[in-house]
Amino acid sequence: SSSIVFEKGVVNGIPVKLLRDTGCQVAGVKKSLVDKSQYTGGNLTCRNFSGSLETFPLAAINVDTAYFTGNLIACVIVDPVADLIMGNVSGVGDVEWQKANECAEGKQLTTKLQVCTAATSDVGDEAMIGDLHVCEGIMEGRKVSVLRDTGCTTAGVRRSLVGEHLLTGETMKCKTFGGRIESFPVAVVSVCTPFFKGTLKCC
Description:
It is a single chain. The chain is mainly beta. Helices cover 3% and strands 48% of the residues. It is built from one helix and 14 strands. The chain has one helix at 95-101; strands spanning 7-11, 14-20, 27-30, 39-47, 53-64, 69-77, 84-86, 108-111, 116-118, 132-139, 142-147, 167-175, 181-192, 197-202. The strands form two sheets. It has a six-stranded mixed β-barrel. Strands 8, 10, 11, 12, 13 and 14 form a six-stranded antiparallel β-sheet that branches. A hairpin with a 4-residue loop joins β13 (181-192) and β14. The longest helix has 7 residues, at 95-101.
């Protein structure tokens, strides 16, 4: 695993710890930073790193960051990994996201994946759901899609792609977007991607 890089930002006039997450389609904010009057009444269901679903209330907050400044609709999270998680919401752009979009010698697969869905009918486009950029890679000799996620300290692989002989017998605990702790079996796989080439220990 590696360390997450935190930066500085401002939410509702309060200095906060910011995480730029290229593997996320939305923004998330710590509940203690949100005033009751800022809740929109809408909810959003998001798919986590593991594929499990979590539903969050939405709030309209004001942010000032290097990636986005202005009013932002964000998921309200009780115990997030950072005070403000900035996903690929509309209007956000930075070097890491550009790299993800231009990876694999331009052979990118840019798709608005079905990761986040409105849990109530009145959300509409308010949630500012952005795109996830995936590109091609090779794992254990077969082609796979690769998502570069700056909000994650480990790698994850689809279980159906991992043979029993690749499992180590270990488990790894990870914190989800919503702050929940989940455990995963660990595998060691051989990968070739625009971001990493070699043997990789992953969930």
